Amino acid sequence: MKIVAFGEVMMRMMPPHYKTLTQAHTLEFLFTGTGMNVLSGLYQMGHESYLITRLPDHSVGKAASAQIRQLGIKDDYIYYGGNHIGIYFLEQGIGNRASQITYLNREESSFCQSQVSDYDFACLDGKDALHVCGISLAISDHLRDVVMAFVLEAKKRGMKVIFDCNFRSSLWSKEQNQIKEIYEKILSLSDIVFAGYKDATLLLQIDAPLNLSDEDKLKYVLQKMCKDYHIETIFGTIRGENTLSGYMVHDSDMIISPPIKLTVYDRVGGGDGFAAGAIHGYFSKMEPYELIRYATASGVLAHTTYGDSPILAKEVIQDFLEHGTSDIKR
Amino acid sequence: MKIVAFGEVMMRMMPPHYKTLTQAHTLEFLFTGTGMNVLSGLYQMGHESYLITRLPDHSVGKAASAQIRQLGIKDDYIYYGGNHIGIYFLEQGIGNRASQITYLNREESSFCQSQVSDYDFACLDGKDALHVCGISLAISDHLRDVVMAFVLEAKKRGMKVIFDCNFRSSLWSKEQNQIKEIYEKILSLSDIVFAGYKDATLLLQIDAPLNLSDEDKLKYVLQKMCKDYHIETIFGTIRGENTLSGYMVHDSDMIISPPIKLTVYDRVGGGDGFAAGAIHGYFSKMEPYELIRYATASGVLAHTTYGDSPILAKEVIQDFLEHGTSDIKR
Amino acid sequence: MKIVAFGEVMMRMMPPHYKTLTQAHTLEFLFTGTGMNVLSGLYQMGHESYLITRLPDHSVGKAASAQIRQLGIKDDYIYYGGNHIGIYFLEQGIGNRASQITYLNREESSFCQSQVSDYDFACLDGKDALHVCGISLAISDHLRDVVMAFVLEAKKRGMKVIFDCNFRSSLWSKEQNQIKEIYEKILSLSDIVFAGYKDATLLLQIDAPLNLSDEDKLKYVLQKMCKDYHIETIFGTIRGENTLSGYMVHDSDMIISPPIKLTVYDRVGGGDGFAAGAIHGYFSKMEPYELIRYATASGVLAHTTYGDSPILAKEVIQDFLEHGTSDIKR
Amino acid sequence: MKIVAFGEVMMRMMPPHYKTLTQAHTLEFLFTGTGMNVLSGLYQMGHESYLITRLPDHSVGKAASAQIRQLGIKDDYIYYGGNHIGIYFLEQGIGNRASQITYLNREESSFCQSQVSDYDFACLDGKDALHVCGISLAISDHLRDVVMAFVLEAKKRGMKVIFDCNFRSSLWSKEQNQIKEIYEKILSLSDIVFAGYKDATLLLQIDAPLNLSDEDKLKYVLQKMCKDYHIETIFGTIRGENTLSGYMVHDSDMIISPPIKLTVYDRVGGGDGFAAGAIHGYFSKMEPYELIRYATASGVLAHTTYGDSPILAKEVIQDFLEHGTSDIKR
Amino acid sequence: MKIVAFGEVMMRMMPPHYKTLTQAHTLEFLFTGTGMNVLSGLYQMGHESYLITRLPDHSVGKAASAQIRQLGIKDDYIYYGGNHIGIYFLEQGIGNRASQITYLNREESSFCQSQVSDYDFACLDGKDALHVCGISLAISDHLRDVVMAFVLEAKKRGMKVIFDCNFRSSLWSKEQNQIKEIYEKILSLSDIVFAGYKDATLLLQIDAPLNLSDEDKLKYVLQKMCKDYHIETIFGTIRGENTLSGYMVHDSDMIISPPIKLTVYDRVGGGDGFAAGAIHGYFSKMEPYELIRYATASGVLAHTTYGDSPILAKEVIQDFLEHGTSDIKR
Amino acid sequence: MKIVAFGEVMMRMMPPHYKTLTQAHTLEFLFTGTGMNVLSGLYQMGHESYLITRLPDHSVGKAASAQIRQLGIKDDYIYYGGNHIGIYFLEQGIGNRASQITYLNREESSFCQSQVSDYDFACLDGKDALHVCGISLAISDHLRDVVMAFVLEAKKRGMKVIFDCNFRSSLWSKEQNQIKEIYEKILSLSDIVFAGYKDATLLLQIDAPLNLSDEDKLKYVLQKMCKDYHIETIFGTIRGENTLSGYMVHDSDMIISPPIKLTVYDRVGGGDGFAAGAIHGYFSKMEPYELIRYATASGVLAHTTYGDSPILAKEVIQDFLEHGTSDIKR
Q1: What total of structural domains would you count in chain C?
Q2: Confidence at residue B283, expressed as pLDDT on a 0 to 100 scale
Q3: How many other C-beta atoms can be found within 10 angstroms of the C-beta atom of residue B290?
Q4: Which residue of C has its CA nearest to D29?
């Protein structure tokens, strides 16, 4: 399949060896973003993947696009302009100490300052699906306009629209009911949605009957969400204590994978590993139970590799599903 | 509060990546010492902290004082002279393999060779507390004279004297009863003491009734120690299998914190993290139970950061106490 | 002497081993700024140095202040607020390939967004001199207001005002005559000024008689500048091909140092090394010729050390002046 | 232009910091090859570039293609099979000590073992030029068959054939006249050729009149070469002591660039930088003198960057041509 | 004792920090091989150890022999010739992700291409034991001839022959019964053999009675193996989930060590740690139970050190046996 | 030849990338010493080389002997005892900035504290030459006794005695005439001596006639030294500005090599490279002019490799002598 994603690219900077910033004198850096990460996973699973974004027109932007290509993502629709990029510092924790993420100024980035006129919708021609993310809705009115324009253009071309709710209240400067309205609009245009219990209950204010089990509550609210917004499939994950399971909801059904024990080497981007697996399973028409197991395994393994972008081939994921964790492969 | 510590600064050198010295070609180095570590923790908790020490009068001494300042400790009372510094190599173990510490010649260091005449007691003026450590008592007679002189000058000024027993028999070349005498003298001048069961029983020869539980034995001997030497408070920790708890003893009472699961990234200096937390709790007049929980959390978190010196802000410790271990903080 | 500087702190990030950003995966970072660099040099020369600045109130700001202290600069007057810091990437060139500096968004930094109300002028009490820099004049109207307020408060307290012209037209969004007016105002309040030929001719529009030699032209315009703005001393450097010489101008005189062969390891901050040397020479009342030779040597040696901040002790500079370049010192 | 290259990709491994292999414990690695390097340069100059090669079908091959994409080269025509790749170790010299290159087994590599049947000539459709290299002629009979097949297919499609003589006698196990025959065959099919004096005289046995100057001898033999084999243009470089100049020969003319002072940071691949510049100049129809100056500058700057592949944008080359070496660009 | 091993030396290359090859730009390298690893362990236990091998006659071979010496192994019998060495890439896994080993061309290495005439059997004179490994039997007929010749020469000299079965079917291009015949021949010449259940059942087709427990089956087949081929002792390990135990079989007995909890830092070479321990125990005439516990502890600790070669002194192993895992040794 | 050296092994620690200690957080370390360095060079030239020294009996001593073996030096005569080793910090300078060497306490090292009874003179049996160094004479009376004992034992066995004057006044706490006496004693027992003009004039107080040229003065004093102390050959080097030449003096002759341009990557140990070359030339009976050219080339190349110990094969030195500096060797 040919899949495009519209999304922000940020620069992640991490002190080595679990040091804090104050203790460090070097930083490991990479470029990351929800759309970019999902595309990286999809490339590994055999899809043609394209990122639409806007990068600063200087050496930082060039370095970002080089890494994007390196991951197997096509750079044909990367636009250059402005001179800033969002940066976050990741001070990796270990054991009892939590990881700490610190954002620098993001609003002034080339991407967050971009307008509809900075892009060319022809980049959607001939593609099968568009991936967008809730974070792009939050930053500013004009960026949200770009997202909505891309979604409408995708629908016009008969593409599947994939929307990752990714709701972070701290990024929004609007009132609750305005945000709900915005999400409702985009959900009603989306075919595949990544969402969780809180998105349904807190953001969309769907209430579950009190007497249900947690699983039945989840099923109730997500199925209602499917129906209310005409969503084909909702995907998401449940984190247990050191486990991950995935679910897949249609308006008539919910399939949950058995939980897989989670081992964490690099936490950030684990969710994008799940999303790539789910989208791949969807487009390769896996059986639901196989699909959700595959997507969960993809998410679990994405926690074991350096960086935010999933980089394991689908054969590695299949092997893990079949044989579990092993020692050494020769 | 304004807190000064008199203590040795050593240079710690560690092969990277759990290699042994024979396998390594580079060393990560830092400067460390009980007093310096406790002050580093106290700076993070909002106190003005000063180190009194003597460093070699060349680039190694300059590098040490730069790192001391970097940690937030004032270098106003660092004296320069001599040309040697104590060095220890830390070959970090992992899993079944223990860490190995190898000391090079320490006795000839600028600090261990220092005399009363190398210091100026005016540095105590206007300060609230003095921290000294049992290791400085062991090295040589003339260094012990310096410690005692500082302690007496501190008492003269009405400062609190904080004494960390830190008894290591391998450092002493005296007979048991001579050592006991020395410890008794300094304990009777101390307000706050860091000590454990063995210090009381082996060093000071306080026996606990045989029929008591371990906890009651501990309480018995430390309360006796409080009474015998007029100590206001004794602090210490108990290491379980993978857990740490802290205690606080007055002549009338002993409070023990619930054990916290211990995760270890860098073992050395964990005790100094506890000490910093306890001293901070004491001077900020925390309730006993709150105090001992805070100190224990400070000790536990000090095991999760690179280096011997505690470097986490008190907000991080509070957050850990309230919410336990978490994943990522944004 | 007690010297304070008001100035921006930026984060410098450099790919290792002369790689370009696209080739790199790690960055060496440090904190830098004209004021900070000059103070670092002055600390090495025996002065008490204080930085007034505003840093982001998160781990990046904490890391900056730790490095500031490490350099020997007092952090008593560092204010925290906002969440952004200016960043520049330095892709170090070698041989035929020039170094490339790329700035990210600087205007939104905690410093550049700061207001008079963010500072407390009491920090000037009891100090001997204030250092400010032309870059702070350029960023915004409100930041320029802060600079002017500090300068006026310093004059009120009888402090020497040191002004580094540091005119970079790319940073200004004003018309030429407006800029000239601003510079004239601050020059007339300054005692010691760092300025060059272009500052006098292009910015202040002082013309030199055409028939003079280059050196006499320089002398003419800078002496006129001294007179016009009642400046006590103007310092500056002349770059030959692989050499550096320094000058010192009073309204009656100009002293030029013999050129010193320049060897470059880390180019950025060389000028601040000269400035630190000149200010030290001024306050320690060196003879003019000795002063300008010392300042030039300080500038030359600052090109041979890693980082922007001068870090060599005045003994090293003196030794270089006396014995020239040598092989190994034991 | 759309340019394809058929060529080997090798793995280069280099001990850091000018160490010898015996002193090293880590290696910096990258992937390299004449075709790949030339395409990397052409990408920087705005061309669409495609590499045809065969890589091992395992993680080393995947790592190679990721770096190829990172450099801006399209990986559409990379074929996977076999399990070996040529490796060379580069022990970088400095000053009086020469760099030392050590090759491991190259003949068994996926590329050198490849056959015509491993490729699909459709990859040439719609492209403007094909680049091949003399090294591929030397390894084995079957690999030479592949080269010849590609060249013939390119001619069939009206593409320009670019041939880099790259004659290394150590790679050949044939007799001199057999090698000559092979070269003559491919030269007569080539439009643009990279060749030097020795190629003409030693390999092709063209003799220059004895009484000519060195430059006239070069002109004589290369013009004869143009005529004999119907070559449109021959390019090459002359290394002086610490200088480089380039030349461009037609059957009627030879243009030589003025020598440019050479500064070397990473020696390998400098010739490919010249080649990329020359090909770009050719296809963008630069004036001969401008072209050869540009190509030489491109070669000179390729000596100043890490790695074998040219990675500087054409703007950087232009700027160097116009302003010479400079200090820092902001 | 004086122990020689005949075996291959390979080059191991590993991306740092659990990165995949595609993510890496540096590789940590070392030299390794079953014989070399066993000798490294034996050196630590006080034996004189000599490696017989053939290395490429260039800087890679020189680097290998330097590391061999560094480990305490004598290089007197290293022969140089050819120009290739076997290489494997180790992409270290973590948690759920398995480590991945990728071999490059090994058959063309200086060792695997070596012939009887490349060696001098005089190197066996005066030695006590010879160690050979099943991998050397698999590569080629001529290499197998070398192994057999060494074994026969060792027997002639009354040396103990130690054979590590190390059967890896992927390395063989022969039929099952041919391989069996080869193994039978060498087993009948061996005194000490490292073998497991699969070697006995699959390779040698010894069947155990069905009604036995797993342990009794193991005992049955290995004792039969001892009898059939006149082997003095067979050693081997059993991996439980996160544990390791070792066994030692004579024709009359089998001793199994209690399982020790396994913690893994660097997995490769763990078996060689066990082998070194067993051989040391054998030659120092330890009691069987003590021997097998020591060998197992040696194997367990070999999992905790960087690299394939065991590098811990026998005192460290003894200490671990006596006191279990500890924290820090001072 | 079989050559033994008696000498100290120190630990050298160097901040990376020309940083000062204050700027560094890691150190590159290695082991070094005059004797060890000369032996390392002699191993490269084909000689059997043995170091006699005393190292601390812990992991630092083990690491030192591992590196000694790695360099090709036999460790048969390394004795273990004590727990300290001499350390020096090398802050590498660049350009105008000199390198700075800082010694920590050296007197208490296992070597400097060693006594005659710590060694076994049987280690000299069957060897051809003994190398000792003037530094060992300076440290203490008892160490000097060891040196003298070894020299006398060597003479007894008919070995050549090689003495490197290496006079550093800062290491001596004796009066000038006492030092002279000590040197005279050892010189009269030496066959080959490394000495310079200052050794002859300042230390031994040999005066040259005033009217001679510098070269003739050198010849005069060294020939007199040969005669006075019955020395067979004196070797030494003359440093010009960026050049090195070597000389060789008999009582009848002096041969000086043409100066070779010096390029410096790692300065320390350059003299030991010359010494190794001279000793090799001497024992392989090179013609005087060839010998001194070879020794000088060896010294020059030792300045271009990392570390103090010469590590280039004699073929590399020969190639440099024949072809001068070249670019790349393949």
Answers
A1: 1
A2: 98
A3: 13
A4: C23
CB–CB of E259/E243 below 8 Å?
yes
List residues of chain D with CB under 8 Å from any CB of chain A.
66-67, 69-72
Supply the mean pLDDT for chain D: 96
Q: How many CB pairs under 8 A join B and E?
A: 63
Token pair recorded at residue A62: 């060039």
Residue F66 corresponds to which amino acid?
A
Q: Which of F24, F26, F108 is closest, CB to CB, to B108?
A: F108
Using CA atoms, how far apart are residues C197 and D259, in angstroms rounded to an integer?
34
Cβ(C167)–Cβ(C195) below 8 Å: no
CA distance E69 to F65: 10
Question: How close, in Å, is residue A118 to chain D by CA atoms?
Answer: 21
E strands within D241-291? 243-250, 253-256, 260-261
- Predicted ipTM beyond 0.90: yes
* CB nearest F72 (choices: E69, E71, E72): E69
Residue D199 lies in a domain: yes
Q: What is the extent of the structural domain holding A62?
A: 2-236
pLDDT attached to residue E53: 98
Residues on chain B touching E261 (C-beta within 8 angstroms): 96
- pLDDT at position C327: 82
Tokens 């033994």 locate to F4
What is the rounded distance in angstroms from the CA atom of residue B163 to the CA atom of residue B233? 11
Please tell me which chains touch A, using 3 or more CB pairs under 8 Å as the contact test: B, C, D, E
Q: Name residues whose C-beta falls within 8 Å of residue C122's C-beta, 6 or more positions apart in sequence.
A: none
What are the residues whose beta carbons fall under 8 Å from the beta carbon of E260, sequence distance 6 or more? B96, E243, E244, E245, E296, E297, E300
Q: What is the pLDDT of residue B169?
A: 87
pLDDT per position as a tens digit, E278-303: 999 999 999 999 999 999 999 999 99
C230 in a domain, yes or no?
Answer: yes
The whole-angstrom distance between A262's CA and the closest CA on chain B is: 13
List the CATH number of the domain containing C233.
Answer: 3.40.1190.20
A17 → closest Cβ in B304, B306, B311: B306
Contact B27, B15 (CB under 8 A): yes
pLDDT band at F33 (very low <50, low <70, confident <90, very high): very high
The structure tokens listed for C317 are 């500079």
| Residues of chain F with C-beta less than 8 angstroms from the C-beta of B26 | 16, 26-29
Q: Report the gap between the CA of B71 and the closest CA in chain C (Å).
A: 7
D241 pLDDT band (50/70/90 cuts)? confident
pLDDT value at residue D310? 97
Q: Does residue A241 surpass a pLDDT of 90?
A: no
Residue E328 lies in a domain: no
* Residue from C308, C312, C328 to probe the interface with F (highest F Cβ count within 10 Å): C328
CB contact under 8 A, A59 and C85: no
All partners of chain E with 3 or more CB pairs under 8 angstroms: A, B, D, F
The amino acid at residue E262 is: L
DSSP state string for A71-85: TT-B-TTEEE-SS--
Q: What is the pLDDT of residue C222?
A: 97
Average pLDDT taken over every residue of chain F: 96
Task: In whole angstroms, give the CA distance from residue B316 to residue A96.
Answer: 11
Nearest to B274 by CA among B97, B72, B37: B37
Residues 6+ apart with CB under 8 A from F287: none
Q: Do B303 and A96 touch (CB under 8 A)?
A: yes
Contact C69 B67 (CB under 8 A): no
Q: Find, in chain C, the residue whose alpha carbon is nearest to that of B43.
A: C66
Share of chain E above pLDDT 70, in %: 100
Domain assignment present for residue A184? The answer is: yes
The model's pLDDT over C100-137, given as tens digits with 9 standing for 90+, comes to: 999 999 999 999 999 999 999 999 999 999 999 999 99
CB within 8 Å: F70 and E69: yes
